From TrEMBL:
Belongs to the BORCS7 family. It holds the Pfam family BORCS7. Signal peptide: none annotated. This is BLOC-1-related complex subunit 7. GO terms for cellular component: BORC complex; lysosomal membrane.
Length: 114
């Protein structure tokens, strides 16, 4: 009967070892699940940050396009103003010539009337 007792003890020891193994596996699994959860949270944060960055970049690009349009419009306006200025200068020169002619005519008239 002594052999059987030892068998029960060995079986008991094996069950104990199995329980301990199960416990350590559960512990490892819990750790893994926790670390996985942490990783998922970190990844989510990163993705959100990335999408925010993309949003900001898009906004910056739109602003640049708007500014570029404004600059081109300003350039166009300046070109038109330069053309108008040139025309005004020509007109001023023509007026000055006419004033000189008319003062010459006035001098001649005055001379004739004396």
């Amino acid at each position: 009967g002594a052999g059987r007792g030892r068998g029960k003890m060995a079986a008991g020891g094996a069950a104990d070892a199995q329980a301990r193994f199960g416990h350590s596996v559960k512990g490892l699994l819990t750790e893994k699940v926790t670390s996985c959860g942490t990783d998922v949270i970190a990844l989510t944060k990163q993705v959100l940050k990335g999408s925010r960055s993309a949003e900001l970049l898009g906004q910056a690009a739109r602003n640049m396009v708007m500014q570029e349009d404004a600059i081109l419009h300003s350039e166009d306006s300046l070109r038109k103003m330069a053309i108008i200025t040139t025309h005004l200068q020509y007109q001023q020169e023509a007026i000055q010539k006419n004033v000189e002619r008319s003062s010459n005519l006035q001098d001649q008239l005055n001379h004739l009337l004396k």
